[in-house]
Amino acid sequence: MTDHDRLLELLASRSARHGSFTLASGRQSSLYIDARLTTMSPDGLALIGPLGLAALRDSGWGVQAIGGLTLGADPISCAISYASAGTLVPLRAFTVRKEAKQHGAGRLIEGPFQAGDQVAIVEDVITTGASALRAAEAVRNAGGIVAGVLALVDREEGGREAIEAAGFHVLVLTLASDIMTRMRGAFRPM
Q1: Please, what are the domains in the chain?
Q2: What are phi and psi of 107, to 5 degrees?
Q3: In what order do the strands lie in the sheet with 65-69?
Q4: How far apart are the C-alpha atoms of 156 and 126, rounded to whole Å?
Q5: Which residue in 15, 17, 27, 38 has the fewest CB atoms around it within 10 Å?
Q6: Which helix (H) or strand (E) holds 151?
Q7: Long-range contacts of 132-135 (CB under 8 A, 24+ apart)
Q8: How many separate helices (H) and strands (E) can be counted in the chain?
């Protein structure tokens, strides 16, 4: 079994549920994917870091930093950053707050992000694409150059196309349809 297959198995067994759910986008769905149940586990992080790093390297984007809207992007960005530590081009992870802090430095972007960085926006689950686009706007406003978006899961509900229509390339590690296939039709209510 490949690492990609192992990741699909983890997402299907831990993160995906059938039922009736209201998503963050406000949409109704019979499939809920709580990626954090995988992205915040040791074995999930151990798979996501190298797989994400390989996808970014294969893309040719030449990024120096990775990050996205907190909270979903945070463990993925850190896993990829950690996996890159021993490489010739280590990647710095950052997080984009939902709103700027009202104290301290008042930052919207936290971590070692720098103006001029070529970055990949990270997303846990793409549904509408709004979170990735919000993070991309924050990075651009702070002087970063957005090379594209890397997502752990594409729900295949038009979000990827919305991101691409905004002018960004999109890489995805897994598709919701592949996760559903791995669920083997088992009904696992939330």
Answers
A1: 50-175 (3.40.50.2020)
A2: -80, 150
A3: 109-110, 92-96, 65-69, 118-126, 145-154, 169-175
A4: 8
A5: 27
A6: strand 145-154
A7: 132/68, 132/69, 132/159, 132/163, 132/168, 133/162, 133/163, 133/166, 134/69, 134/96, 135/67, 135/68, 135/69, 135/73, 135/96
A8: 7, 8
What tokens does 100 get?
């700027």
- Which has more confidence, 29 or 62? 62
| Torsional class of 8: left (φ above 0), alpha (ψ -120 to 50), beta (otherwise) | alpha
The predicted-structure confidence for 95-150, as pLDDT tens digits, reads as follows 999 886 665 556 899 999 999 999 999 999 999 999 999 999 999 999 999 999 99
Mean pLDDT of the chain: 93
What does DSSP say about strands 16-22 and 65-69: parallel, antiparallel, or unpaired? Answer: unpaired
- Give the global pTM: 0.92
Per-residue DSSP letters for 152-181?
A: EEE-SSSHHHHHHHTT-EEEEEEEHHHHHH
Per-residue pLDDT reduced to its tens digit, 123-132 = 999 999 999 9
**Cα gap 115→103, rounded to integer Å:** 21
Can you name the residues that pair with 125 across neighbouring β-strands? 153
Model confidence pLDDT, tens digit, residues 157-182 = 999 999 999 999 999 999 999 999 99
